[in-house]
Design brief:
The structure is a single chain. The chain is mostly beta strands and 426 residues long. It folds into three domains: 79 residues; 81 residues, Immunoglobulins (Immunoglobulin-like), CATH 2.60.40.10; 242 residues, Sandwich (Jelly Rolls). The protein is built from three helices and 33 strands. Strand 21 and strand 22 form a beta hairpin. The radius of gyration is 36 Å and the shape is rod-shaped. The N and C termini lie far apart (81 Å).
Length: 426
């Protein structure tokens, strides 16, 4: 059986190849055993080759190292002595142990190390990150990683030892940028799944389910008095409870209206005439403190007091009205729309636009100023009280999906096209 032994100059190592495959080694010594040669690994104190016939030991060109066992062993030892690195040359990783990328970006990192010969990665915590074919020191990928910090253990190895380190990969959210909104014309709307987990759902009167809605709105020129902005509730508007926020654009009204209840039992709170400026972006927050509502005539003012409406960070006065002294039932989980009323049409019209819609399962009256941010849209997820749901209304979205940035309650654009995602923002 022939055995190939040769020095690889690039790796500065000895390779021994036989019927079992190849291995690269250092700290070797050849000794004469009669007419045969034995090669030992001094570092591990084991024999690599035992009593091989001298003419079975060949170089990488297939040539015999000598004419007898003595010549072959001497030739092999000359190669063995010139191989390897000094024992003090332990690998040392010299490249940065901190990597930073933004979500959606592709990692491009190359490890460097003094005296490194082999490299070992543990990429189990970073799905989608791989080494480059032909360059095990280089990492690419990672565009699917979410924001966070990831540990990547790595080793640089040579024949004298190894250096083990942990690279920290930080994936951060991109800098906040608001460049898109959604425009609506008659019969355009967004639809999402209504469920009992929605903050607007209310199983019964006085169940303590507070909520807050925040959005930017740019009114169109339509004079229709029932232009829906947000609605949640029953498909039977006459008998099932709903939350309905709309724009009344009729005549000089131009105001925001909050409707709570059914067509026959409800509360309505309306901001002053002219409080909505057609063609101008304005920020609105509507809150509910979670308290009891009902239909007792003597408590109607208490019912109204459960709700507040804020424009551009300031509390609005409201004109309040009711049918049958209010509503004390459930807000059911049938439909959830933007720009359409649950159970009806009442669409937004004339290219009215909505941006940065957010929903909390809490009364955020104390945080209105932080949400409004002096009129500058910002990253709501960084608030000390972040919204449960947040729709960017075009930023980062791909038609027809309008994604929930803080959860998984996504809207779908209905009767619309990709052209309805427009570059017009507050």
């Amino acid at each position: 059986m022939t055995i190939t032994i040769y020095k690889d100059s690039n790796a500065n190592a000895i390779f021994i190849e036989d019927a079992n495959g190849a291995q690269f080694l250092n700290s070797l010594h050849a000794s004469i055993d009669g007419p045969t040669c034995t090669v030992s690994d001094l570092a591990r104190d084991i024999e690599i080759i035992s009593q091989a016939e001298y003419d079975d030991l060949l170089d990488d060109q297939g040539n015999i190292y000598g004419n007898n066992a003595t010549e072959v062993c001497n030739a092999l030892n000359a190669i063995f002595v010139a191989s390897g690195t000094p024992s003090t040359n332990i690998p040392n990783i010299t490249s940065s142990l901190a990597i930073s990328i933004v979500t959606g970006e592709t990692l491009n990192y190359e490890l460097s190390a003094d005296y490194g010969v082999g490299y070992e990665w543990d990429l189990s915590s970073v799905p989608g990150v791989v080494t480059v074919e032909g360059n095990v020191r280089k990492l690419i990928g990672g565009s699917s990683l979410i924001a966070g910090s990831y540990n990547i253990p790595v080793k640089a190895i040579n024949y004298n030892g190894e250096d083990s380190e942990t690279i920290i990969l930080t994936v951060s959210s991109p800098p906040f940028s608001n460049t898109k909104s959604i425009q609506f014309n008659n019969q355009d709307y967004l639809s999402a799944t209504a469920s009992t987990s929605n903050p607007l759902y209310r199983p019964s009167n006085g169940s303590g389910d507070a909520w807050t809605i925040s959005f930017w709105f740019k009114a169109g020129t339509s004079g229709n008095q029932n232009q829906s902005i947000i609605s949640f509730g029953g498909s039977d508007e006459q008998n099932e409870g709903q939350i309905w926020i709309k724009h009344n654009g009729q005549g000089s009204n131009d105001r925001i209206v909050l409707f709570y209840g059914t067509d026959f039992n409800n509360l309505e709170l309306e901001t002053p005439n002219g409080s909505v400026t057609v063609g101008v972006w304005e920020h609105w927050i509507i809150t509910f403190d979670g308290g009891t509502t009902g239909s007792a005539s003597g408590s109607i003012n208490d019912y109204y007091s459960r709700f507040s409406i804020y424009k551009n960070g300031s509390l609005e006065s409201t004109t309040n009205s009711h049918n049958n002294y209010g509503f004390g039932g459930a807000i059911v989980d049938d439909l959830f729309y933007l720009a359409r009323r649950a159970g009806a049409g009442n669409y937004l019209r004339n290219s009215a636009r909505i941006d940065e819609v957010a929903l909390w399962a809490s009364d955020e009256s104390a945080n209105v100023a932080a949400i409004y941010n002096s009129g500058s849209p910002h990253d709501l997820s960084l608030l000390s009280s972040a919204p449960d749901h947040w729709w960017r209304m075009g930023d980062g979205d791909t038609y027809p999906a309008i994604n929930d940035n803080n959860a998984s309650l996504n809207f779908t654009m209905v009767n619309m096209t990709s052209a309805d995602i427009v570059s017009d923002v507050p």
